């Protein structure tokens, strides 16, 4: 079977844009040209690739397979380009990654500095977002890989590595519970809580742990900002729940303390580096992933270990 990649590109853009007219605007061709190219591709392959008669582009199973072929091929071309750049010492390109706000800190900054020192011709885009949006960005090839907590299972997303990072109760050093080695989930829920919104995996895990223990979570502050959670704890206005590496500097300075929570769900939280299945990484991308594995996650784990653990 001979597949015309130009026609497959037209199908991909129509699917991504949602309509042939929108794809025509992106590709700067007439909508009728998009339609003709897709129809010719269907004749060459011998089956329908889109559900005809729909205003929006809806792929058949065969169409989804062709789109996956195209994306895999494009990723392979990108990987080859990276290898050739490396061999010719051009060493230029662009890396896109997504991560949760909780990873912002010295460990991440040192990791990115190390990568950019090793590959000075490369530029970086770092998108701080929540895990569901991270997964969507990976599926649409808007980012190369993501770093997040406990991502939901998806057939087209794979974890390149993972590491356990327990969630702890983060509170002011003068809080009445600050001297404890651990607290129960009931004791946690009895405190004024500052937590992430319900769209975040950390919050969802906390809610599950509380429900399983017959408790209810009623935060006095809900936000999408870890910085605001930390500020609330420092101001003695509430207790928050985060991995220790998210508050590394505050713990080191003695302003905050981290206390173990007696809930198995909060001890089984994992950090994952995730990517779209079958996406090929260039040598530079592989180098950055390895640096994260060596420097960022081990730093998180070393900070997350408490004597009571």
From TrEMBL:
Lineage top rank: taxon: Bacteria
Residues in HTH lysR-type domain copies: 16-60
SUPFAM superfamilies: Periplasmic binding protein-like II, Winged helix' DNA-binding domain
Keyword presence, Hydrolase: no
Pfam families documented for this protein: HTH_1 (PF00126), LysR_substrate (PF03466)
Signal sequence bounds: none
Molecular function GO terms recorded: DNA binding
Keywords: DNA-binding, Transcription, Transcription regulation
Keyword DNA-binding annotated: yes
Family matches, as InterPro entries: HTH-type_LysR_regulators, LysR_HTH_N, LysR_subst-bd, WH-like_DNA-bd_sf, WH_DNA-bd_sf
Stored PANTHER family: HTH-TYPE TRANSCRIPTIONAL REGULATOR YBHD, NITROGEN ASSIMILATION TRANSCRIPTIONAL ACTIVATOR-RELATED
Record-stated family: Belongs to the LysR transcriptional regulatory family.
Protein name as it appears in the record: DNA-binding transcriptional LysR family regulator
